[in-house]
Amino acid sequence: MKRISISAILLIFIISCNQNKTNSTIETTVNKTDSITIKNIFNTALTQGQSYQWLDYLSNEIGGRLSGSPESLKAISWGEELMKSLAFDKVWLQDVMVPNWKRGEKEIAYFTVNNTKFNVPICALGGSIATPKEGITAEVIEVKSLEEAQQLGEKLRGKIVFFNGPFDDTHIQTFKAYSGCAGQRYSGAKVTGEFGVAGVIVRSLTHNIDDYPHTGAMSYDDLPEDKKVPTAAISTKAANLLSEKLKENPSLKFYFKQSCVTLPDEPSYNVIGEIIGSEFPNKIITVGGHLDSWDLGDGAHDDGAGIVQSIEVLRLFKLNGIKPKHTIRCVLFINEENGLRGGKKYAEEAKAKNENHIAALESDSGGFTPRGFSFDANNTNTNLLLSWKPLLAPYGLHDIEEGHAGSDIGPLKSETISLFGYKPDSQRYFDYHHAATDTFDKINKRELELGAASMASLVYLLDTYLN
After folding, report:
1. Which run of H or of E encompasses 327?
2. For domain 38-101+264-465, which architecture applies?
3. First CA to last CA across the chain, in angstroms?
4. How far is CA 233 from CA 164, 195, 197, 206, 260, in A?
5. How is domain 106-259 classified at the CATH fold level?
6. What is the pLDDT of residues 196-227, one digit of tens each?
7. Whole-number mean pLDDT of the chain?
8. What pTM was computed for the model?
């Protein structure tokens, strides 16, 4: 073995130190540049933001935007014109056929105990059939889960089944409480219709104990027409009262009437706008929310907030002179609430055109204070995202973990795309979700703007570091 001279060793040491210093300088420069850019994004959103004003118009001038409604078409025109006015490089509509379910007249419900009539706030669930014109009157059987209903089987025949499974209040993440009992709303009629029940009423999916029923999608799946039954949501306060009275009077009868109808599918549209990438125009990062909403409120949190935040992401890029390397595309998806046809159509056309989507971000959890992001990504991009925590933490974006990213971007899922979901604080979301209380006055301007800046910051980092 040859001996290495002391001079040679010193030379190697000096080169190594200089190399480490250079790498450290590069890393520091990159992080400093990113930090400054993100700070500028937040400053711009909080001082020159437009998301709150846009949402004011969408909520108060257009209102609830159920798929197939005139209001949904007005919202589509509004979204298209807004993106054109912001001078996005390209704006277009994507054809989608959507369900056309109408609520009809306001629902009526009550029960009587010892000659005392208790009026009950209810609302038809989306996709339900109507009751007969005279309504339905029947005895009630209370259950807490789909499994309990299945076990009762034939004992349910001719009865109104009352699903009274409440939120689990011990879940800190309220979406876990929601998913824990959402099945009774979606599948309650399917499960019990097999046994010839008269109808179904479902406890509203919320922590709040109030008089506001929360609607939402239900499904009969492949149930024959003659076994489909009317299905409605009952407010939590009324659900507690009914449960209490059933213990005292197990044979009490419940009456409800609703006049909803499903009409033939209607033509509708996703609204799409984009800034074309300077280096990789054929690689796409999508950001979006859903333009449709339920009809009881004006859909401010679900998902008007996500819509205006997504548009604002592209506007913040332009205001801050950020020229993206990849194409940044904003999509206002239609029909998330009762069909997901907008998300499916977008993914279908992307596949047909061989579009290369490298990432997608969805905002569909309300306009509350930013908390972080969920992600569904490969190991490489997961590690990349986690490395950005120091850049995002100063803005309250600490909650970064693997999980569901979003329903509308879900159909894009592949081995190469990374999906992200914007996560605001969830504690108040289900107070308003799918209810008449989901209105613009529940929106906090600063929280909404912080959310838009959070999303723009993530999109900036994705554009900077993804291949």
Report:
1. strand 326-333
2. 3-Layer(aba) Sandwich (3.40)
3. 45
4. 10, 20, 16, 11, 13
5. Glucose Oxidase; domain 1 (3.50.30)
6. 999 999 999 999 999 999 999 999 999 999 99
7. 93
8. 0.92
